[in-house]
C-alpha cells in the first residue's frame, strides 16, 4: 500500500494533469461508467463534529475509492486541522487498498481543476481579464487553474476583507510569477467585473457576491463555492442571462446548489433552461460556447468521481516515478 502526502502528489501531478483528469472523470460519469452512491454523513454531537464518507466506483479505470472528510471546528484549539481529510483508493480488480493519500490537497486540486476544465471548454479563447471572488482555502487552486488554461494579463481578487485580499494577491503574485500575470486586490467587486472575461466565485456566501447586470456579453462565469441549498454566491439575473448553463453533475447541482435551486424556486428560470453537463459538452451531446457574444456559466458542487479518477491517476504516476512510502499491513 502506498502512502502519499501533499508533497508526494506535488512531485508527480500538476494542475494541468488534474484538469485533464477531471475532463476524463466527467466524460466517464456522463457515459454512465461510474457508480456513485449517496454520501454518508455521521454527526458526532459530543465533539460538535461530523464525518462524511464519499465513495465511488469508476468502471472505465477499474478504480474504487472513498474520501473521508471530517469537520471538527474544535480541532483548532488543539492546533489540528478543522477539516481533516484522507482519500482511500482501492484496486477495482481485487478490492485491495492500494493507496492512502492527502484528501485535503486532493480536494483542492480536483476542485480547482474542474473549474479549469470548464473554463478551458467554455471561456473565450482570447480571455485576458479574470476576477476571483474569495480568498479561502480553495482560492489558490482556482487561480492556478485559470492561469493554466488562458493567457491572462490580469486577475483581480476580491474579498470582504480587503487586507486579506491584498495579502493573498501578493502571495499569489510570487507563487505564480512564471505566468507573467498581474494579480491585484480590488476593493470594489462590481467595478472589477465590468470588463472581465472570466469570473470565478469561490465563497460560502448566502448573498450574491456581484451584480449580474454588470456582466458583459462574452463572459464566462464559474460558481464553485456555494454547495448547499441555502448558499447563493451567483446573482439570479446572471443565471437567467446566461446563454449556456452547464453543470458538473445535474443530479448534484439540482439537489445541493442554492445558486440554481433558489432561482428555480422563484420561477426566474426552469430546469429546461439549462444546457446540461460538462461531460455532455465534452462528448458533443450538448453545445458549449458557440460565439464570442454568449455568456456561459458553469456550476459545480463536486462529485466523488472527480476524487477517484484524480486519485487513480496520481497513484499511477507515483508508482511510475517511485514516489511515496510503501507500507505493509
From TrEMBL:
One of the protein's GO biological processes: carboxylic acid metabolic process
Sequence similarity: Belongs to the ornithine cyclodeaminase/mu-crystallin family.
Annotated keywords: NAD, Oxidoreductase
Pfam families xrefs: OCD_Mu_crystall (PF02423)
GO molecular function list: oxidoreductase activity
One GO CC annotation: cytoplasm
Native source species: Paenibacillus aquistagni
EC number of the protein: 1.5.1.49
UniProt xrefs under Gene3D superfamilies: NAD(P)-binding Rossmann-like Domain (3.40.50.720), ornithine cyclodeaminase, domain 1 (3.30.1780.10)
PANTHER family: KETIMINE REDUCTASE MU-CRYSTALLIN
Protein name: Delta(1)-pyrroline-2-carboxylate reductase
Catalysis performed (reactions): L-proline + NADP(+) = 1-pyrroline-2-carboxylate + NADPH + H(+); L-proline + NAD(+) = 1-pyrroline-2-carboxylate + NADH + H(+)
Amino acid at each position: 500500500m502506498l502512502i502519499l502526502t501533499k508533497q508526494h502528489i506535488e512531485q508527480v501531478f500538476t494542475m494541468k494533469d488534474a484538469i485533464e483528469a477531471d475532463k476524463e472523470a466527467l466524460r466517464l460519469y456522463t457515459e454512465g461508467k461510474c457508480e456513485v452512491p449517496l454520501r454518508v454523513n455521521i454527526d458526532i454531537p459530543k465533539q460538535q463534529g461530523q464525518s462524511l464518507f464519499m465513495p465511488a466506483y469508476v468502471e472505465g479505470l477499474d478504480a474504487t475509492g472513498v474520501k473521508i472528510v471530517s469537520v471538527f471546528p474544535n480541532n483548532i484549539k488543539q492546533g489540528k486541522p478543522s477539516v481533516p481529510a484522507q482519500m482511500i483508493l482501492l484496486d477495482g480488480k481485487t478490492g485491495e487498498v492500494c493507496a492512502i493519500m492527502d484528501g485535503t490537497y486532493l480536494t483542492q486540486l480536483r476542485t480547482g481543476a474542474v473549474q479549469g476544465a470548464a473554463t478551458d471548454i467554455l471561456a473565450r479563447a482570447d480571455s485576458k481579464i479574470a476576477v476571483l471572488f474569495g480568498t479561502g482555502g480553495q482560492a489558490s487552486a482556482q487561480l492556478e487553474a485559470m492561469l493554466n488554461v488562458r493567457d491572462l494579463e490580469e486577475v483581480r481578487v476580491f474579498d470582504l476583507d480587503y487586507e486579506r485580499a491584498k495579502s493573498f494577491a501578493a502571495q499569489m503574485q510570487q507563487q505564480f510569477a512564471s505566468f507573467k500575470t498581474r494579480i491585484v486586490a480590488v476593493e470594489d467587486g462590481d467595478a472589477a467585473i465590468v470588463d472581465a472575461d472570466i469570473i470565478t466565485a469561490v465563497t460560502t456566501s448566502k448573498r450574491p457576491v456581484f451584480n449580474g447586470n454588470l456582466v458583459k456579453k462574452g463572459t464566462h462565469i464559474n460558481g464553485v463555492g456555494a454547495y448547499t441549498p441555502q448558499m447563493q454566491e451567483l446573482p439570479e439575473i446572471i443565471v437567467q442571462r446566461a446563454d449556456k448553463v452547464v453543470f458538473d453533475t445535474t443530479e448534484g447541482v439540482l439537489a445541493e446548489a442554492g445558486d440554481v435551486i433558489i432561482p428555480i424556486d422563484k420561477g426566474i428560470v426552469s430546469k429546461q433552461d439549462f444546457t446540461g453537463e460538462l461531460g455532455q459538452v465534452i462528448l458533443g451531446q450538448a453545445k458549449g460556447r458557440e460565439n464570442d457574444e454568449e455568456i456561459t456559466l458553469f456550476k459545480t458542487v463536486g462529485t466523488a468521481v472527480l476524487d477517484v479518477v484524480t486519485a487513480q491517476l496520481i497513484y499511477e504516476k507515483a508508482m511510475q516515478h517511485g514516489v511515496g512510502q510503501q507500507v505493509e499491513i
